[in-house]
Design a protein that fits this description.
- The complex is a heterodimer of chains A (311) and B (261).
- Chain A is an alpha/beta fold and 311 residues long.
- Chain A has a six-stranded mixed sheet, sandwiched between helices. A four-stranded antiparallel sheet of chain A has the order 11-12-10-13, covered by helices on one side. Chain A has a three-stranded antiparallel sheet with strand order 2-1-4, covered by helices on one side.
- In chain A, a hairpin with a 3-residue loop joins β11 and β12.
- Chain B has one domain.
- Chain B contains eleven helices and no strands.
- In chain B, α1 packs across α5, α3 runs parallel beside α6 and α6 packs across α7.
- The radius of gyration of chain B is 19 Å and the shape is globular.
- The chains are: A alpha/beta (311), B mainly alpha (261).
- At the A-B interface, α1, α2, β5 and α3 of A face α1, α3, α4 and α10 of B.
């Protein structure tokens, strides 16, 4: 049984008389205990997918199963066992952080709510401001309160929608560590959406690239990175001349940029090609000042997949 | 439906009331203003005539406070979630719309009773008018019908908000007052022009206020009108609840729920 099973999910909105297809028949499965990433630019359909799974938006077509059950038919069970945190939504403004968390703990019938709320406040560095009204919080503080709310019922499935938006880099890193530890200790299944590739790469076991409502590719971060076979190499020479251009031409290299003293080219990540090229450069007397090797990131892969240059 | 979730929703509305001065303020402020406004106007009218109108006016305003308070509280406590953009988390939780409505009805009832008791006490102390001098069962019956009608307005306005969004939020404050002139709160049905009587007679509230005036003048409860009021109010409650369910489903379909969250 999968934690989440989505088949041919479709959703369209009508905006000013125009039909907009936000999600176009996507399918994916999330194993128990897995962190699964939905990655894509704004408008890709990530939040629409999360909203459907959270029960706040009705789908047009397809099937959704959470913990083996249909959330429309068995909403009591499903909603008690999932939770959601998003950077885009807030908790009631008139309540303090502590009051909000206490109310939500009671919605989920959390027995030891005092302990639970206090441990979450501690975990997300909110203890000192627990009596501050939600309306007076900064964006980052609101996001952390939303995350506390997301963990309040020890969910079996956690939906995290862009939950690190607005956080300071150190808090964002701490949040990612909390999510990783929590997943490790509790075995929770997490659907994580973000448009920050490095975040998804760091956290997720499997990743789906989403663009214009469609899944372009699904795989692990490692396998996805293998789709790009080349490294990008950037070399600063002490001095270059026309011979260098000829050298790259002669070697059949794909030169991306040739400046006054800099050359950027792609080279196969496998084998000893880079060693051989560098060796030849030395032998021909080219003096290298600096060398940088850029490994492919998920950003590069996403761009290539969306442009159709990698399949 | 789970009682612990209704308790949690009541706790939430208690925190909203406790933390927002205006939510406490409006339990006392407007009822007291109304009490003085209508009492002084009545005392002036009484000085010009022989008829004792004080009980009619005060009885009317005491009972009216239940419609106003209970309808507004349902809509405004839902509006709090619209304004906070917190509807999303509310509807992503196990809480159901039935539990939300029950909790807001209960909080509206509690706040209405506080407003009513405040007015009743001041009416007794300042104007020597004792609303409890009438048959207590009759009073409970009138209050119950009036409150049910207030709940109908609150549910209807909430359904409209889920259907059309915040652009119709003004209904939360105004709809009850649109009904007031035709409900014959301070005057007999016969005092209205014919066209207005045709509207007024259809409203369940009219018959309750007619009965109240009869009882205040030591007359009987007008059972025909009361039976009509109960039937229509229950029917309106059922229709508005169905409308709310349909509106909420539509809000989830169109994405309004996530847009206003």
């Amino acid at each position: 049984m999968y934690a989440i099973e989505v088949k041919n999910l479709g959703k369209a909105y009508t905006h000013k008389g125009k039909k907009i297809e936000a999600v176009k028949g996507i399918s994916f499965k999330i194993k128990k205990g897995e962190i699964y990433g939905l990655l894509g630019p704004n408008g890709a359909g990530k939040s629409t997918t999360i909203n459907i799974l959270s029960g706040t938006l009705l789908k047009d077509s397809g099937t959704v199963k959470i913990l083996g059950r249909d959330p429309d038919k068995d909403s009591e069970y499903v909603r008690n066992n999932i939770n959601v945190a998003s950077a885009y939504y807030s908790l009631p403004n008139a309540l303090t952080i502590y009051e909000n968390l206490k109310v939500f703990a009671k919605f989920y019938n959390v027995k030891n709510y005092k302990e639970k709320v206090n441990s979450l406040l501690e975990m997300f560095d909110l203890k000192g401001i627990k009596n501050k009204k939600t309306s007076a919080l900064s964006t980052g503080e609101r996001t952390r309160v939303s995350l506390c709310k997301g963990f309040i019922n020890d969910p079996k499935v956690l939906l995290l929608d862009e939950c690190t938006v607005g956080l300071d880099p150190d808090i964002a890193e701490k949040t990612r560590n909390i999510i990783k530890d929590y997943q490790k200790n509790q075995g929770v299944s997490i659907l994580f959406t973000s448009h920050y590739m490095y975040e998804v790469e760091e956290l997720c076991n499997n990743i789906s690239f989403l663009s214009e409502g469609k899944i372009l590719k699904t795989d692990s971060a490692e396998n996805l990175k293998k789709l790009i076979k080349n490294f990008t190499v950037e070399i600063d020479f002490i001095k270059t001349n026309r011979m260098l251009k000829n050298f790259f031409k002669e070697k059949g290299m794909d030169v991306l940029f040739m400046g006054k003293n800099t050359a950027i080219f792609e080279i196969s990540a496998s084998g000893d090609r880079l060693y051989k090229i560098l060796n030849s450069l030395f032998k021909r007397g080219f003096k290298i000042k600096d060398l940088r090797i850029k490994r492919p990131t998920l950003d590069d892969i996403f761009i290539k997949i969306s442009r159709g240059s990698v399949k | 439906m789970k009682f612990y979730r209704i308790n949690a929703l009541l706790l939430k509305t208690y925190y909203i009331s406790k933390n927002s001065l205006d939510r406490i303020f409006d339990i006392f402020y407007w009822p007291i203003i109304d009490l003085f406004l209508y009492s002084f106007a009545t005392l002036y009218i009484m000085s010009l005539s022989e008829i004792n109108l004080l009980s009619v006016f005060l009885g009317g305003i005491f009972l009216w406070s239940f419609i106003w308070r209970s309808s507004q509280d349902i809509a405004v406590f839902i509006l709090e979630d619209f304004w906070s953009r917190s509807l999303y988390y509310l509807f992503a939780s196990p809480v159901t719309i039935t539990e939300i409505m029950i909790s807001t009805m209960l909080i509206g009832m509690i706040r209405s009773i506080i407003s009513f008791l405040t007015m009743a006490t001041l009416g007794m102390l300042i104007f020597s008018f004792n609303i409890f001098s009438i048959d207590i069962l009759a009073l409970v019956l009138f209050i119950s019908i009036i409150m049910l009608f207030g709940w109908f307005i609150g549910i209807f306005v909430t359904a409209m908000m889920f259907r059309f969004g915040l652009r119709i939020q003004v209904l939360a404050w105004s709809l009850a007052f649109l009904i007031m002139p035709f409900s014959c709160v301070f005057y007999a049905l016969s005092a209205l022009p014919n066209w207005a009587q045709n509207i007024a007679v259809l409203l369940p509230t009219t018959h309750v206020f007619e009965s109240l005036r009869s009882v205040l003048n030591n007359g009987p409860i007008l059972w025909g009108g009361i039976a009509y009021s109960i039937s229509i109010t229950v029917l309106l409650l059922i229709i508005s609840s169905v409308f709310l369910g349909v509106s909420l489903k539509r809000a989830k379909k169109t994405g309004l729920l996530t847009r206003y969250s």
